[in-house]
Design brief:
The structure is a single chain. This protein has three domains: 4-82, no CATH class; 92-304, 3 Solenoid (UDP N-Acetylglucosamine Acyltransferase, domain 1); 308-341, no CATH class. Helices cover 13% and strands 29% of the residues. Strand 19 and strand 20 form a beta hairpin.
C-alpha cells in the first residue's frame, strides 16, 4: 500500500504522530472529510483520506499525501514511529539466566531477569522482555517479541513475527482430571504442546493451554485481545480475531477468518466453520456450519438475534398486558396455566 503525493516538499519531516486537534509543527496527522485542520502549524505532514477537499487547507511548509483506507495506512505509518523496542536493550542482559545449552540467534535481545532454559531456541532478531521465561526445549521463531513477565512453556513452538504481551502464558497445563470411585480428582498429565503459526499476536494475561496429547494449534495471523483463554487440544484457523474475554473449551475447532466480539464463550468439542462473525457475550454450544454473522444464547443468525433482544425489552409490558386482559375477561390463572403446558 502506498501514498499519493498531493502537494508540498517530500523532504518534510515529522517527529511524532498526533490526533488532529493536537497538530503542531513537525508532527504528522491523519485527516478526512470531517476534520478541521488547526490554524497554528506551518510545517508538518498531513495524510488525507481519498476524496477529501484538501486544497482549501493547503499551506506553505505542509506536505499533503493521500491514502485509500485509514486502518492499513495507520498500520504502515505507525510502525515507523513505534518506539516500544526501547524496552528491549540490545544484547543479552548480564542479569538474565541463560542455560548454556540454549541456542541464541543473531541480534537477539534478552532483558534483565529473563530465564532461558535448557535446549530452548531463540531464532534471529527475537526480543525477550524482562522477567519472561522460555522453558526447556521451547522455540521462539525469528523476529518474535515476548514481552515482560510472559511464559513460553516447555516444548512449545512460536512461529516467526509473533508478539506475546505481558503476563500471557503459552503452554499452561490443560484442565484435565479423572475422578475415582470416591469422587477424588486425579490430574491427567498434559504432555502435548502449543504451536503458534507466523504473525500471531497474544494479548496481555491471555492463556493458551497445552494439549493433553498432540498440539493445541493457533493458525497464522491470529490475533487475541487481552484476557482470552484457549483450552487444551483446540485448533484455531488462520487469520481469526478474538476480542477481550473470549473463552473456548477443550477440543473445539474454529475455522479461518472468523471474528469474535468480546466475552464470547465456546463449549467443548464444537466445530465453527470459516468466515463466521459472532456478536458480543454470545454462547456457542453447537456446531456452526454456515458462514455468516450470529449472536446471542441460544445462538441465532444476527438479524434474528437482534429481534430477540428487542423483544426481550417488551416482556415486562407484555406480562402486564396479559394480566390486564386476564382480569378483563375473568380468565383467572388459565392463561398462565396454558402457557406452562
Amino acid at each position: 500500500m502506498g501514498f499519493r503525493h498531493l502537494t508540498g516538499s517530500l523532504e518534510t519531516k515529522a517527529l511524532e504522530v498526533v490526533p488532529p486537534h493536537q497538530f503542531k509543527n513537525d508532527s504528522l496527522v491523519f485527516l478526512d472529510l470531517r476534520t478541521k485542520l488547526p490554524p497554528s502549524p506551518d510545517r508538518g505532514i498531513c495524510l488525507w483520506a481519498k476524496g477529501s477537499n484538501w486544497r482549501e487547507f493547503r499551506r506553505e511548509g505542509l506536505l499533503f499525501l493521500e491514502y485509500d483506507h485509514l486502518k492499513p495506512a495507520m498500520a504502515q505509518v505507525l510502525s515507523v514511529f513505534d518506539r516500544k523496542s526501547m524496552a528491549f536493550p540490545e544484547g543479552l542482559s548480564p542479569r538474565a539466566h541463560i542455560d548454556p545449552t540454549a541456542k541464541i540467534g543473531r541480534l537477539v535481545r534478552v532483558g534483565a531477569g529473563a530465564v532461558i532454559q535448557a535446549g530452548a531456541v531463540l531464532e534471529e532478531e527475537v526480543h525477550i522482555g524482562a522477567g519472561a521465561v522460555i522453558e526447556a526445549e521451547a522455540i521462539v521463531g525469528r523476529g518474535s517479541i515476548v514481552h515482560a513477565k510472559s511464559v513460553i512453556g516447555w516444548n512449545c513452538r512460536l512461529g516467526e513475527r509473533c508478539m506475546i504481551h505481558s503476563g500471557a502464558v503459552i503452554g499452561s497445563d490443560g484442565f484435565g482430571f479423572a475422578q475415582g470411585p470416591d469422587g477424588t480428582s486425579y490430574k491427567i498429565p498434559q504432555v502435548g504442546n502449543v504451536v503458534l503459526g507466523h504473525g500471531v499476536e497474544v494479548g496481555a494475561l491471555t492463556t493458551i493451554d497445552r494439549a493433553t496429547l498432540g498440539s493445541t494449534v493457533i493458525g497464522d495471523g491470529c490475533k487475541f485481545d487481552n484476557h482470552c483463554h484457549v483450552a487444551h487440544n483446540c485448533t484455531i484457523g488462520p487469520h481469526s480475531v478474538f476480542a477481550a474475554g473470549f473463552k473456548i473449551s477443550g477440543s473445539s475447532r474454529v475455522g479461518s477468518h472468523c471474528l469474535f466480539a468480546g466475552e464470547v464463550v465456546v463449549t467443548d468439542h464444537v466445530h465453527i466453520t470459516d468466515r463466521v462473525t459472532i456478536g458480543g457475550r454470545s454462547a456457542i454450544t453447537n456446531d456452526v456450519t454456515k458462514p455468516g454473522a450470529y449472536t446471542g444464547y441460544p445462538l441465532q443468525p444476527l438479524r434474528d438475534g437482534l429481534k430477540t433482544i428487542a423483544n426481550l425489552r417488551e416482556l415486562t409490558r407484555l406480562r402486564k398486558d396479559v394480566a390486564t386482559l386476564s382480569k378483563l375477561f375473568k380468565l383467572g390463572n388459565r392463561l398462565h396455566k396454558g402457557s406452562e403446558q
